[in-house]
Amino acid sequence: MKKILVAVDGYAASMGAVKKAVELASLYDAELIAIRVEEEIVRHEYEKEEEGVVAGDSLHKISSRPLELIAEYAKQKNVMVTTLKDSGLIAGTILRHADELKVDFIVVGDSARKGLDRIHFGSVATSIVGKSNVPVIVVRDGMVDIADLTTLAKQFVGEEKQEPVIKPEFNQTRFNKNFKLSFSLLAIFAVFYFGAAMLTTAELAHIAILDVGGIPLSVLLGILVLLVGLGTTKTYLKKSSS
After folding, report:
1. Using an 8 Å Cβ cutoff, are 87 and 93 in contact?
2. Which residue of 11, 112, 170, 225 is most buried, as measured by CB atoms within 10 A?
3. pLDDT value at position 46?
């Protein structure tokens, strides 16, 4: 039985390769192996876009779960598929698995960049073609109609496990308790605050300048107001959470 290795990453170019690989596996009754390689090195976005790895362009992203997508698509086409996931340099990792699995040929997707741009940016597909020990089928972006894969991919959207959202219930008793507490603490703070403020009036100015341990009384009261404010806040937070 022949073995076909197809590289996937969830973008349009690789989805075209997926469809072509499934067709070939069905035609030749071959064993299909799908591999997804997560790159370890950091590259510029324009390099990723050229090689169709992680372009960051949602217009070309078909699925964030390509291995699950190809498994379901192959199942619908009555094709057996084995999925693999690895990390490393993309081209080298794909070629290593191709040699280890002794595949008969490789199917890869490729963007349609040509000429000097291709020379400048390079390509995973170009690297695989140049170094592979087996034939490589390159499927250019747009060469294969992937409308059915795009439709199927939508079934996977939102299926990721999500933590349940717990909405707190309104507790009237707790609300009343916290309201009374906050009002009481505010009243205590107001007494100290306005008491200190009264010392700034002309009538009580002679009291404000009284020396207490080398510090004017007005300054001491200001510090006291600050401490009372911090104390009431701490008390409220502690009591309201209990």
Report:
1. yes
2. 11
3. 47
pLDDT of residue 160: 42
Residue 44 CA to residue 22 CA, distance in Å, equals: 32
Residue-level pLDDT at 163 = 44
Give the model's pLDDT for residue 215.
Answer: 76
Q: What type of residue sits at position 204?
A: L
How far apart CA 91 and CA 89 sit, in angstroms, is: 6
Please give the CATH topology (third level) of the domain spanning 3-156: Rossmann fold (3.40.50)
Provide the pLDDT for residue 237: 66
Give the list of residues 6+ apart from residue 172 with CB closer than 8 angstroms, or none: none
Q: Which residues of the chain fall short of a pLDDT of 50?
A: 44-59, 115-122, 158-166
Domain ranges of the chain: 3-156, 172-241
Alpha-carbon gap, residue 83 to 26, rounded angstroms: 17
* Per-residue confidence (pLDDT) for residue 225, from 0 to 100: 74
